[in-house]
Each structure stands twice: as structure tokens, then as C-alpha cells.
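#lab-general

N.A. 3:47 PM
ok so I finally got the sequence cleaned up, no stray characters, all 214 residues accounted for. can someone with queue access submit it? mine expired

B.Y. 3:52 PM
send it over

N.A. 3:53 PM
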Amino acid sequence: MSQETTIHPDDEGAAPLTLPPDPSRRFWIGATCAVGGVAGAGVALPFVSTFAPSEKARAAGAPVEFDLSVLNPGELRTVEWRGKPVWVMRRTKEQLATLPKLNSELADPNSERPGYTPAYAKNDWRSRKPEFFVGVAICTHLGCSPTPKLETGPQPSLPNNWEGGSLCPCHGSTFDLAGRVYKNKPAPDNLEVPPYQYLSETKIIIGVDEDNKA
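B.Y. 4:20 PM
back already:
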């Protein structure tokens, strides 16, 4: 749209004069707006991009799938989720049978303390299904990584009636095969059970459950 300029003369009673639009003026106004818009876009794009998570951040927080069929009975494997080691263990019937017998020796046998056990794991085996245990391998004392001690019987730094579990090498906290901490140990709580779900009979996804979406 053309823009006209109106000039009011100094002589009283004289009619205002209307000048035709100046093409050069329109050009510079348009050019200035165009440059300003481009510059604004150039500033806006990097600013918006700072809200997008980096590839590294996405990878660090992404859920992790695990194929349970690779585990033999009594075998434990470690996977990484959010930079944390997570144990996935296939327990034998004999190992499962020992769990209820240990309740009197444990600090929190029913996993009643908040923050470490989702509702679906508040049972003797601390898992969705008795056979498979999924737990974060980080001691709740000072964050060391416990060492699996699956063999039963007397061993260094373990009681003579040891039924299998794990030992924190830093300060001696011991955990059973469900990640439950024994009494009178530095660790105040059981090992954390991360959010996880079954995708099929033989596959789980760690990092996703009813309360934690991908």
C-alpha cells in the first residue's frame, strides 16, 4: 500500500498539500523491515535450539531394553541405565526359597521405607515376577557399587550361613538376592528397584513403568 505525506502550510486558510508517495522511501522502509526480520530469525533459532536436549542427554535418560532369555538360572548381568549399573538376575527356585527365611535378619524385609521400591516390587522377591530381579547396583550408604556374591556358604567378610547376595566393598554392607540390606550395616536402605515393565514374556524395558513414561 502506498503511503502519502501531508504537509500543512504556514499560511492560515491555505489548503493542505498532499505529496505523492516517495518510492525510495518505501524501498528503504521495506528493506529495513526485511533485514530486521532476518536478523531476528537469526537470533531466535539458536535461542530456541537451546531448549532441545542434546543427543548425549537423550541417550543418558533413554529407557533400556533387556532380553531375559539370555540369562541362565542363577546368572546375573549388568546393564547401564542413566549412567547407573543395573543388575538383572535370573534366580533359581532354591534361591527364591531362601528369601522368606531371611526376614528376621534384614533391616527392611518388607520394603516399607519410601523411595526405593515401587509398589509392584513390595514382596518377598522384590520384583514383578519371582524369577527375575532388577535392581540398581549402587549401595544406599555412600554410592559404592556392591560386588555380587552369589555363592553360598562361608566367605571372607561374609557370615558362615551366607545364602547369596552382594557385598559392598567400601564399608561392608550386605544385601540378599532381592537387594534387601541386612541389619546393623552402614547402608540405611535396600537397593533401589528402578522403574521397569515387561514388553513380552522374555523382554523388559528399564526406565518405564506406570508412573514413569518414556
